[in-house]
């Protein structure tokens, strides 16, 4: 039962031992991984097996939770009261002014040819009286289509989120990734109408990913652009599939950070972020998820005399998500992180409003 899993996680937290509890998009099962000690493990070359938690800064190490103990239970959705809505949020004057100013500066740099796109973010600190596990359960109830998680290590901190974006999925040698860009608020009964800014941003991200993978995979294919709903927001999405051969580390390093969380070209965009955002993103816009998990797959034999018999094969699977719509817990406070892609067609005030809409994804499950 889920209650038993939550109790085990709560006990892990009381002992200040590392854990992660999570549910994948459109899934029913909740998984938990409990580490038996407080040692801080790092990934060397992505051949390891465990749950990874990576920062935005590629120079910083990726954390690995070994599979010391794994638990799972089915989740049953409940009706829980929602918290703050977007329209009820109070806009902080200095915070708004700073974000609008750096967006304007970003547009100026695009005009100069410094880069084509840059993703600019901000953080917002709010009081949080609810327990992390209570907020995690609200996320499960609210965001069926997102990867919902609560992650903790005593030497790093506690993070929680509901992210809609896949960095990559692998099954043996098959790979799937996606480009996700453009944002519009969800309005009941209406389909999104995308403008030139969002369509151009999506095209740029898709082209970048294809180019980054070109010499590392074979058989690249991409889907048509589609509208994808994540919580109270719409995004543009393109799925990209390919085949790879034992070079997962080089693929991850080529994809992270994508233009959807940093910009392009990568280096000048990252330098601009470091100079103008004026805060450390830490694990926001990093990635997290299952690395090299073994999975059993049932298959039906094709031989005529064994038509109704099945057999099981073992596959190696990796499933990593970009750490968006997330927050960090510190004492009785939560720091929420949000951002958006800036292109030549961006409007600074609309970019601010986009971050307000995105922050509501987390704020509505924090604030009563």
UniProtKB/TrEMBL annotation:
SUPFAM superfamilies: ADC synthase (SSF56322). Residues 96-297, 315-358 form the Chorismate-utilising enzyme C-terminal domain. Transmembrane segments: none annotated. PANTHER family: ISOCHORISMATE SYNTHASE ENTC (PTHR42839). This is Isochorismate synthase. InterPro entries: ADC_synthase, Chorismate_C. Pfam families: Chorismate_bind. It comes from Maribacter luteus.
């Amino acid at each position: 039962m889920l209650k038993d899993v939550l109790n085990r996680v709560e006990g892990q937290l009381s002992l200040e031992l590392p854990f992660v509890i999570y549910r994948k998009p459109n899934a029913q099962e909740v998984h938990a991984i409990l580490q038996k000690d407080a040692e801080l493990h790092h990934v060397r070359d992505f051949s390891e097996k465990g749950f990874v938690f990576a920062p935005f800064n590629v120079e910083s190490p990726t954390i690995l939770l070994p599979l010391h103990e794994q638990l799972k239970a089915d989740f049953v959705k409940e009706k829980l009261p929602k918290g703050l809505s977007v329209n009820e949020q109070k806009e902080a004057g200095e915070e708004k002014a700073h974000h609008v100013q750096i967006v304007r500066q970003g547009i100026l740099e695009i005009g100069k040819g410094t880069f084509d796109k840059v993703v600019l973010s901000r953080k917002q600190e709010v009081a949080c009286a609810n327990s992390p596990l209570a907020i995690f359960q609200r996320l499960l109830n609210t965001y069926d289509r997102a990867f919902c998680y609560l992650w903790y290590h005593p030497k790093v901190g506690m993070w929680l989120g509901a992210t809609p974006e896949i960095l990559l999925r692998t099954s043996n040698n098959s790979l799937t990734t996606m480009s996700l860009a453009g944002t519009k608020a969800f309005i009941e009964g209406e389909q999104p109408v995308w403008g030139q800014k969002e369509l151009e941003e999506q095209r740029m991200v898709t082209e970048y990913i294809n180019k980054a993978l070109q010499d590392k995979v074979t058989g690249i294919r991409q889907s048509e652009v589609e509208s994808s709903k994540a919580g109270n927001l719409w995004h543009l999405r393109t799925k990209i599939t390919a085949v790879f051969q034992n070079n997962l580390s080089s693929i991850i390093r080529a994809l992270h950070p994508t233009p959807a969380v940093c910009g392009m070209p990568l280096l000048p965009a990252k330098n601009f972020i470091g100079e103008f955002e004026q805060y450390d993103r830490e694990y926001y816009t990093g990635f997290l998820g299952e690395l090299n998990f073994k999975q059993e797959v049932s298959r039906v034999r094709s031989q005529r005399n064994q038509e109704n018999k099945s057999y099981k094969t073992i596959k190696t699977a990796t499933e990593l998500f970009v750490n968006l719509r997330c927050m960090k817990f510190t004492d009785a406070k939560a720091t929420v992180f949000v951002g958006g892609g800036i292109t030549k067609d961006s409007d600074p005030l609309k970019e601010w409003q986009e971050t307000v809409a995105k922050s509501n994804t987390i704020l509505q499950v924090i604030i009563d």
